[in-house]
Write a structure and sequence with these properties.
Strand order of the largest sheet: 8-9-7-10-11-6-12
Number of domains: 4
Shape: globular
Number of strands: 27
CATH superfamily of the largest domain: P-loop containing nucleotide triphosphate hydrolases
Structural class: alpha/beta
Number of helices: 17
């Protein structure tokens, strides 16, 4: 008889332990899904085998036995190793990590399976001739795949430099050696474009897709195709990193800098870190690609942890777009109160006359930022989150973008009775309306979270634009990420300042990346494109660097400041948030958490603990939130990690029903 340590499928911190069972089932392996009797009532529960042991560490009085093994669902031993690592790195439960790797739902009993790729052209395409830079890149990457050697590569290539073709050649090499490849994109909106390219090279039968917009049945079908070895390529957003391959040759993260690769739901994992961990266990390569790599990634390339490969020219040798900064303060002085500067207005008309397409980028959805009374200053706020409601004109409602609360817009001010309730600020909905007024001859479409709620809506909007049916595409950051359309002659950044004003140390980095990436959508065909950047702060180094496509200048400026304040990549920044329905309870709880942490690591570490103070979003869903930021230098990780696990356990034991406590390592937002 053998013994197994198992992880119970129960989402509770009180059962986040390994439980030992006896088994007489032959051939059980770590990762196998089993059924076991659990707790006093011996109710049958699903569980996952963590490890096989010959004898328990201590004598078990009433030993229970594994009832049976699931014939279909099993994870690899590698998976269990990664799950244990995720628990230690992200302070999550064992089962939270395991759920990332398992198929959602069960196999439908009766269902017609609609082919996922039936609307995508299946015509095989001949690989293009490689440029010298692409050839050099492959000469550095492919030997590692051949030698089964784990290595992380950063392809730092300007927009339209041919990174995707390098990715496909890497995948080709993996398949030729009977290895699998995972191709990740930052947004679901980009999967169709990537799928189309990969089907043209490898055929639909070789490819599976994993992302959150698939139905439960579709995800289950795709998971089983991968598990049964029917495909060698998986394409998807961040959840595709958990594809159940047995032998991974390469994991590719396109646009590696994007914040969407960081999960903001439990477990709060960083896709790149998980990819590197998987690559290490499978002896596979990890390829990171971007025109604007994150500072942390570039820093690791600078110190030799990653191998950097540069692609400095566009594939078709087309020049980078002409970029012009427009100072909106000067526009106001000249009497122009429109959201369109005179130069942007002129360039849009010019493009329309030449049958070129235009992308207008504004990273704020809705019609206006807030509703306010001009008489007394009253602002419409969410009753649950205490933040200003965004005005959506199409619905004539104020909507909270955090909890979803909706309110009708009052005709008179609730505070003073004035009728001067007015909307202020600009969102994509308002840009669309004003563009329709200014350019009545143009066909206009909008791409943001409000227009893409229905399944397939993203593909429909982008398909219309790709076919030239849309003249002007207006959107949030969805339009700035990796889209490749040859006829875009102009990109207008309507307001470059929005992302600069977010209370986050990464704000300059995000601004530089968004402007550079959005600019990169222009001039991808034969003609040089144009970019207009509208801003009230043209002197800011992030805007200047983006306009000049000067990544080295931006990196050196920003990394110097990060080093001075000891922020990532020189440390891990750990966010602790304590929430409660009572504001004073939340405040005192956060103080107790800080005190408990410092008791364990030493009071001299107080210099690395910022707060507690109200979170920037101090109230969400009727919960008051207080935030503590912990700067953790590499040499302190184990000490801080143990202390935080102990603090978490103490909070759960004493105040689980009154406090909500979360830990997030290197979050991409501090709201």
């Amino acid at each position: 008889m053998k013994y197994v340590n198992v992880i119970i499928d129960n989402s509770s911190d009180h059962t986040d332990f390994l439980y030992t069972y006896g088994t007489e089932i032959p051939g059980l392996m770590p990762g196998d899904k089993v059924i076991v009797p659990f707790a006093r009532g011996n109710k049958l529960r699903d569980a996952y085998v963590h490890s096989i042991i010959d004898t328990p560490e201590k004598k078990i009085k009433r030993l229970k036995y594994v009832v049976e093994k699931d014939p279909e669902i099993s994870l690899s031993p590698y998976t269990i190793d990664v799950c244990c690592w995720m628990r230690e790195r992200y302070f999550c439960r064992y089962i939270d990590a395991i759920k990332c790797f398992t198929p959602s739902g069960t196999a439908p009993k009766r269902r017609k399976t609609k082919p996922l790729f039936q609307d995508i052209s299946q015509e095989k395409k001949v690989p293009p001739v490689l440029t010298g830079e692409q050839t050099m890149a492959l000469e550095r990457i492919l030997p590692s795949i051949e030698r089964n050697s784990h290595r992380v590569f950063l392809i730092h290539g300007v927009t339209s430099s041919g990174k995707t073709e390098v990715y496909m050649r890497v995948v080709e090499e993996c398949i030729s050696r009977n290895k699998a490849a995972i191709m990740l994109v930052p947004e679901i909106s980009l999967t169709t474009q990537t799928i189309r390219r990969f089907i043209g090279r490898f055929g639909a039968d070789s490819i599976a897709v994993l992302h959150s917009k698939l139905s439960a049945g579709e995800r289950y079908d795709q998971w089983m195709r991968i598990k049964k070895g029917q495909v060698k390529i998986v394409i998807g957003a961040r959840s595709a990193i958990f594809a159940p391959f047995e032998k991974i040759g390469a994991i590719i993260l396109d646009e590696e800098h994007e914040t969407t690769y960081k999960s903001d739901m439990t477990p709060k994992y960083d896709t790149m870190e998980v990819a590197i961990q998987l690559g290490r266990l499978h002896n596979g390569v990890v390829v990171l690609g971007s025109a604007t790599p994150s500072l942390s990634t570039t820093y690791r390339a600078e110190i030799g942890e990653y191998e950097r490969i540069r692609l400095t020219k566009r594939y078709n040798e087309a020049p980078l777009p002409r970029v012009e900064i427009v100072d909106m303060r000067e526009e106001l002085k000249q009497g122009n109160k429109s959201i369109f500067s005179l130069e942007l207005f002129r360039k849009i008309n010019q493009c329309l006359e030449q049958n070129q397409q235009i992308i207008l980028f504004l990273n704020r959805r809705g019609y206006s930022s807030f509703l306010s009374c001009r008489s007394c200053g009253y602002v419409m706020r969410c009753k649950d989150c205490n933040i200003s409601l965004t005005y959506h004109k199409a619905e004539n409602k104020g909507i909270c973008h955090y909890c979803g609360h909706r309110e009708d817009v009052p005709t008179i001010c609730p505070d003073c009775g004035s009728k001067y309730i007015k909307h202020f600020g600009t969102g994509t909905e308002k840009v669309e309306e004003m563009a329709a007024e200014a350019f009545p001859q143009a066909v206009i479409d909008r791409l943001d979270m409000d227009t893409t709620k229905r399944k397939g809506s993203i593909d429909r909007i982008l398909s219309r634009f790709a076919k030239g049916k849309t003249d002007i595409l207006i959107g949030t950051q969805l339009v700035a990420k990796g889209l490749d359309f040859a006829n875009v002659g102009l990109v207008g950044i309507v307001s470059a300042d929005i992302s600069l004003n977010i209370p986050d140390y990464r704000s300059p980095e995000r601004t530089f990346q968004l402007i550079t990436q959005a600019s990169g959508r222009a001039g991808r065909g034969d003609l040089q494109g144009n970019v207009i950047i509208q801003t009230y702060g043209p002197e800011h180094y992030a805007i200047q660097a983006a306009a000049n496509q000067d990544y080295p200048f931006f990196y050196e400026t920003e990394i110097h400041m990060r080093k001075q304040i000891g922020y990532p990549p020189y440390s891990d920044l750990i966010q602790l948030v304590l929430s409660a329905t009572n504001e004073e309870e939340a405040r005192s709880g956060a103080e107790k958490v800080k005190d408990a942490f410092l008791r364990r690591v030493g009071r001299n570490h107080g210099v690395n603990v910022l707060g507690p103070r109200p979170a920037p979003m101090s109230k969400i869903n009727n919960l008051y939130r207080f935030q503590i930021l912990v700067k953790c230098l590499p040499e302190h990780w184990e000490t801080y990690q143990q202390a935080l696990f102990a603090v978490k356990k103490k909070v759960l034991a004493e105040k689980e029903k009154e406090w909500f406590f979360s830990i997030d390592v290197n979050p991409y937002g501090f709201l």
